[in-house]
Amino acid sequence: MGNLDIVIIVIIGANILISLKGFNDFSFFEKYKFNIGGIRRGEQLRMLTSGFLHVDTMHLFFNMFTLYIFAPLVIGYLGNIKFLVVYFASLLVGNLFSFVFHKEEYHYSAVGASGAVSGIIYAGILFRPDMSLYLMFIPIPIPAYIFGIGYLLYSIFGMKNRVGNIGHDAHFGGAVGGYIVTLILAPWLFQENLLMIGLLAVPIIILFVLQRLGKL
Fold it and tell me: Is 127 left (phi over 0), alpha (psi -120 to 50) or beta?
């Protein structure tokens, strides 16, 4: 983490600059946030721009700090260009999930890089499922694959029960985007971590089964 790649600096810088603009310019924030009504009117650019806006400085800091932790790992395996593919694919898939789950809620709005960051987290876990993660208020290390599975299961719970003012669907969709695109870009993972790939797919399968059964 000592030497930040220029790609990480640019992404974090863009998030900071655009978010600060949104903090101080209400019309700018409203124009570029994720909003179902706006997207259905043809403003698809919101699917991308909303990923660079944040609600407040804490929201911004948490997403950028998490990106700072996981991005170097993913870049180390994929390189800069493929990292960007994972990042932006995760952002767009996350917002696509939000659109699908809220398409009839014309006033539904959201912002944040959480979908993109979730995709990078899941990509990092695919590469290093054995690494240990430490979470606030939990003093013991958690295996990365356990965290990944638990994270998505909680997202399903959050989607089903509308827990908090959090875009659980964007988090889940971003992780799915990161999972799929990473496997496309690094197919050798099927030979090295097939069991972990299967385990990390379990929450994704559960979500689609619940969706088909009309339980979400």
Answer: alpha
Three-class SS of residue 134? strand
Are the C-beta atoms of 71 and 8 separated by less than 8 Å? yes
Q: Return the amino acid letter for 107.
A: H
DSSP letter string over 92-108? Answer: HHHHHHHHHHHTT-TT-
Query: What is the four-CA torsion angle of 43, 44, 48, 53, rounded to 10 degrees?
Result: 30
Name the residue type at position 95: N
Q: Give tens-digit pLDDT for 124-142.
A: 999 999 898 876 666 778 8
Note whether 50 and 112 are within 8 A (CB). Answer: yes
Q: Output phi, psi for 139, to 5 deg.
A: -80, 0
For residue 52, the one-letter residue type is: F
Strand ranges, E, within the chain: 34-35, 109-110, 132-135, 138-143
Q: How far is CA 122 from the centre of its chain?
A: 8
pLDDT tens digits, one per residue of 64-92? 999 999 999 999 999 999 999 999 999 99
How far apart CA 147 and CA 156 sit, in angstroms, is 14
Give the bridge partners for 35, in sequence order: 109
Token representation of residue 165: 């003012």
**DSSP letter string over 141-199?**
EEEHHHHHHHHHHHHHHHHHHT-TT--HHHHHHHHHHHHHHHHHH-TTHHHHSHHHHHH
Question: pLDDT confidence of 1, banded at 50, 70, 90?
Answer: very low
